[in-house]
Write a structure and sequence with these properties.
Elements (H helix, E strand, L loop, with lengths): L1 H24 L8 H22 L6 H15 L2 H13 L3 H27 L2
Helix pairs in contact: 1-2, 1-3, 2-3, 2-5, 4-5
């Protein structure tokens, strides 16, 4: 039960922060979802750091990992919103934004995870 509460608290906190970043950064004029992009890349970096810490000398406990990686990062990042925003790009015929957003999200997201893990190795 404690594990479920930790994931619940982390997920709720991450979701609220993602919502606030979206409100601040998403551009309604151009339709470019900078907030979702930023949350997904930052969340990828954070999960790399968190899981790197968890693996390094077991710096984080299982409870901390559940709260931060599964809960917070799971709530903070969002594949479903990413997929929906790409649907909107395709539906409107904006293939350039679709391609840029998709490719940049994947490349920067994966790179951020690896960067977070490798950053912890040097600390």
């Amino acid at each position: 039960m404690k594990q479920l509460v930790l994931v619940f608290i982390g997920g709720g906190t991450g979701s609220v922060l993602r919502y606030l970043i979206g409100k601040l950064l998403n551009n309604s004029e151009t339709g470019i979802p900078y907030g979702t992009f930023a949350a997904n890349v930052l969340g990828s970096l954070l999960i790399g750091i968190i899981l790197g810490l968890a693996a390094k000398n077991e710096t984080l406990s299982q409870s901390h990992t559940l709260l931060l990686a599964t809960g917070f990062c799971g709530g903070f990042t969002t594949f479903s919103t990413f997929a929906y925003e790409n649907h909107i790009f395709l539906k409107s015929g904006d293939f350039t934004s679709f391609a840029f957003y998709t490719i940049a999200s994947f490349i920067l997201g994966f790179s951020a995870v690896f960067a977070g893990i490798h950053l912890i190795k040097f600390i």
